[in-house]
Amino acid sequence: MSIGRYARVKGALGCWIVASEWNGDHNRIIDVQCARVDGVAIKPDVWYSLKNGEFVEDDNNAKTD
Predict the structure, then answer these.
(1) 32 lies in a domain?
(2) Domain membership of residue 24 as a residue range
(3) Taking residues 6-10, what's their average pLDDT?
(4) Mean pLDDT, residues 42-61
(5) In a domain, 65, yes or no
(6) What is the mean pLDDT of residues 27-39?
(7) Residue in 58, 36, 62 with CA at minimum distance from that of residue 48
(8) What is the chain's Cα-based Rg?
(9) Mean predicted confidence (pLDDT) in 14-26
(10) How many domains does the chain divide into?
(11) Three-state secondary structure along 19-62?
(12) Which of 6, 21, 25, 35 could be a cystine partner for 31, CB 3.0 to 4.6 Å?
C-alpha cells in the first residue's frame, strides 16, 4: 500500500496492491484504488502508479533487487 504523493506499488502474485492518486497541485488525494496481482491485468513484481483512476505500469520499472 502506498498513499503518498508519488505513490507506486508492486506485489507478488496473489497479493493485493493499494495506491492513491493526487490532484495536480499534490495537495489532496483524489482517488484510491486496490487491485489483486493476478498475473494478467496486474503483473507480479512490476511497479504501478494510479493515473486517472487506473493502475498503469510505472515509467521507471527498472529492477532494483
Answers:
(1) yes
(2) 16-57
(3) 94
(4) 93
(5) no
(6) 97
(7) 58
(8) 11
(9) 95
(10) 1
(11) EEEECCCCCCEEEEEEEECCCCCCCCCCCEEEECCEEEECCCCC
(12) 21
pLDDT band at 59 (very low <50, low <70, confident <90, very high): confident
What cell was used for 6? 508519488
Domain membership of residue 23 (yes or no) is yes
The set of cell numbers assigned to 61 is 520499472
From its phi and psi, is residue 45 left (phi > 0), alpha (psi between -120 and 50) or beta?
Answer: left
Is 45 inside a domain boundary?
yes
The letter for the amino acid at 34 is C
Q: Which residue has the cell 507480479?
A: 44
Place of cell 521507471: 60
Return the bridge partners of 38, or none: none
